[in-house]
Amino acid sequence: MTSVRTAVIPAAGLGTRFLPASKAIPKEMVPVVDKPTIQYIVEECVAAGIEDVLIIDSSGKSAIGDHFDRLMGLEAALEAKGKTTELEVVRGLAELCDIHFVRQGVALGLGHAIGIAERHVGDEPFAVLLGDDVQVDGGALLRGMIETHEEQQGSVIALLEVEPDEISSYGCIDPIPIRDNLYGFERIVEKPSAEEAPSNLAVIGRYVFTPDIFDAIRQTEPGVGGEIQITDAIGLLNQTQPVTGFSFKEGRYDCGKPLDYLKATVEIACMRDDLGPAFKDYLKGFVATLD
Ligand code: UTP
Predict the structure, then answer these.
(1) CA 255 / ligand 1 centre spacing (Å)
(2) Does the C-beta of 130 come closer than 6 Å to ligand 1?
(3) Which portions of the chain are predicted below pLDDT 70?
(4) What's the pLDDT score for residue 1?
């Protein structure tokens, strides 16, 4: 068992980049191949050894709760038809791990959403995985971040090098190398312009926090977009308790963004043993027809 027992998955955002799909369906329930994005994320928690998950949702997102619940009518119908494989899939979802829910009444920002987890998390370190960021690596990134938290005894944030014209969509640090893929920083800024960005290292949707982040969130004023930004709270925390950046290279898809969502769908379908061979054959033929 790891020192980090709880993962928080904020999934209460409005999903404006994924409209119209996200109007009546939570964007976290939009499937990549045949699984909703949030299922990949819960499976990642389990792969990294975390078995207590708190999902922050909001009104209109109850489909997320239903997805991880028992559905007796469907189970009975599958049993009656002898569809045992499908029955195992449906039942297995309710047994993945302990899943709890709490609501964010108003989408006041990611920092605000994480602050709502305080009562559940208590005085322990915890992980945060964004509900629309799919990481395909069998839990390796999260495990590495937890090990770094244990070693450094502080909070850890995931970093990914992005193209200069993409940095304005992310939080960004001025890296101070520690060793290998680990960095400290003095400054962290939310959504800087390409010219103002202190580096092209973007803060990506995986975090391991000490409970001190909750005090930092309480002290954080609304920032970019009028939202309580977790980036600003991390900047405050870093002043009293150094935060470590953990850079990684592969496996991340921002499924809240249509282009990344398409890449995730194609690449994850190609990785699948059941669909991959036939889908790759189709793709090769299709690509040959493109100009
Ligand atoms: P995003 O900015 O990607 O999500 O937040 P969004 O606000 O839903 O999407 P767009 O930008 O309008 O398309 C990252 C994560 O934080 C959650 C979102 O659900 C997403 O998983 N979030 C964001 C909250 O839970 N509450 C908030 O107030 C804001």
Answers:
(1) 11
(2) yes
(3) 1
(4) 61
Index of the ligand 1 atom closest to the CA of residue 254: 3
Q: Is 132 in the pocket of ligand 1 (CB under 6 A)?
A: yes
| Residue 218 pLDDT | 97
Separation between Cα atoms, residue 31 and residue 265, nearest integer Å: 9
User: Atom 3 of ligand 1 has which residue's CA nearest to it?
Assistant: 256
* pLDDT for residue 2: 78
Is residue 102 lining ligand 1, measured as CB closer than 6 Å?
no
Residue nearest to atom 23 of ligand 1 (CA): 13
> What pTM, to 2 d.p., does this model score?
0.95
**Which pLDDT score is estimated for 70?**
92
**Boundaries of every domain in the chain:** 6-256
Tokens in use for 10? Answer: 């904020």
CATH class of residue range 6-256 = alpha beta
Judge if the beta carbon of residue 104 lies within 6 A of ligand 1. yes
Q: What is the pLDDT of residue 200?
A: 94
50 alpha carbon to ligand 1 midpoint, in Å? 23
- What is the per-residue pLDDT across 73-116, written as a single tens digit (0 to 9) for each? 999 999 999 999 999 999 999 999 999 999 999 999 999 999 99
